[in-house]
Amino acid sequence: MNKILKVLNHLLNSVIMIILVSMVSLVFFNVVLRYVFDSGITWSEELARYLFVWVVFLGAVVATKEKGHLGVDLLVGAVARKYQKLLYVVSNAIVVFVLTLFLDGLFKMMALNKMVSGPATGIPEVVFYLAGVVAASLMIIITSIQTIRFVFLDQDKPNWAKPRNEWEETK
Fold this sequence. Notes:
Helices cover 74% and strands 0% of the residues. By secondary structure, the protein is mainly α. The longest helix is centred in the N-terminal third of the chain and has 36 residues, at 2-37.
C-alpha cells in the first residue's frame, strides 16, 4: 500500500512539475518572441491559463495530502484526545460537504459551457472545470482516508494532536 502511495505521490508531483515548467517556458518563449522578433505565439497565453488552472488545483491536492491548508487549531489542540477526534471528524465532514457542493457546481458549469472552446487553441472550456473535478475528487478521498486513519487507527496524526500519554492523563 505504501509503495502504491509513493508512486501516486511521485506521479502527482511529476505532473505538477511538468505543467509548471511548460507554463513558464511557454510564457518566457512568447515574451522573447515579442520583444526580439515583434511577433508572438497567439495561443500561448490561452494555453498558459489552462496550465495555470491545473497547477493550482493539483497544488491544492498536494496541500491536502500534506495537511498544509490553513486551519485554526487553537480549540482542537486544547481538548482531550477523544474530543480532538470528534472535532476532527466534524471539521473533515464539513470539508467533504463543501467539496461535494463544489463538485456539484463544477458539473453544472461543465453542462453550461460544454459547447464553448478557447478562441486560439480550440481547447474546450470544460478542461478548466475538469481540473476542479479531479482536484475535488482527490481531496475528498484524501480527507476521508486521513480521517479514518487518525480516528480509528490512531495513525497519520495532525500536528495539533496530543501525544498518547498526554491525553490519557486528561481523561
